[in-house]
Design goal:
It contains 9 helices and 10 strands. It has 238 residues and is an alpha/beta fold. The chain has a 7-stranded mixed β-sheet, sandwiched between helices. Strands 5-10-7 form a 3-stranded mixed β-sheet.
């Protein structure tokens, strides 16, 4: 088996089915899906099983990803947030590029699910362009990360003690063991629900400060930024 797709989830019945549909409709089929459930009280686990996914016990995102990776059989791991969507044909393109460029770890650019051009511009200016420019200097990754299973094991996965930016920490540690690049052949579609619920200015400021903290002070091991997982209101729209 080439690929294991790992998805940490908590009460994601609304979004998980969208992601699993997008995976099912890909033209690449050599994969398994592992959903690390953090104790959902809705239909998340039922939906995952209906799509043929393996369900394991999760926790906070880092713990869920590690639990999923422990159960994974694939040579390559694709770690996704539950509220993303894979555009048609993107899975095959990602695997081909990952292998052709002889990568060990890779980040995927993000395309916000919205019709607002300003939001798309903000994502490009403040995430996609910077992570590409800085890929050889300061690796970044979030919401969609590809990694060789061997690299994952070599660095012992995600640091479960971290409260925020655990994905960036994972990518940077992995990049010290192997070749890291940002994929150029695909973007993944991502929800903007956190921005809509918690507020754009608040989220942008929080992550900007968190990055500075992470870069100049060190990994974030205390809950100073009050990060929440699975707290989304059903009333929030894209």
């Amino acid at each position: 088996m080439i690929l294991s797709i790992i998805i940490p989830a908590l009460n994601e019945e609304k979004y998980l089915s969208r992601l699993l549909d997008s995976i099912k409709n890909q033209d690449f089929k050599d994969y398994e899906i592992i959903v690390a459930d953090a104790g959902s009280t809705d239909r998340t686990k039922e939906i995952a099983k209906n799509y043929g996914a393996k369900v394991v016990k999760g926790g906070m995102p880092a713990a869920g990803r590690n639990a999923g990776a422990k159960a994974a059989r694939g040579k390559i791991l694709l770690i996704l947030d539950a509220d993303v969507i894979l555009p048609k044909g993107s899975l095959k393109k990602a695997i081909i590029e990952f292998q052709d460029r002889k990568l060990d770890i890779a980040s995927i650019p993000l395309d916000p699910i919205t019709n607002k051009k300003l939001v798309k511009l903000l994502f490009n200016c403040f995430y996609n362009i910077p992570i590409t420019i800085l890929e050889r200097i300061v690796p970044y990754g979030a919401m969609g990360i590809l990694a060789k299973n061997s690299i994952y094991k070599a660095i012992k996965g995600y640091d479960e003690k971290l409260m925020l930016c655990e994905d960036h920490d994972f990518v940077r540690r992995a990049a010290k063991k192997g070749k890291f690049r940002v994929l150029t052949s695909i973007n993944i579609s991502v929800s903007v629900r956190r921005f809509n619920q918690d507020g754009w200015l608040k989220i942008i400021a929080t992550y900007a400060i968190a990055e500075l903290y992470n870069d100049f002070i060190g990994p974030i091991k205390s809950d100073i930024f009050k990060y929440k997982f699975g707290h989304y209101s059903k009333k929030i729209k894209e």
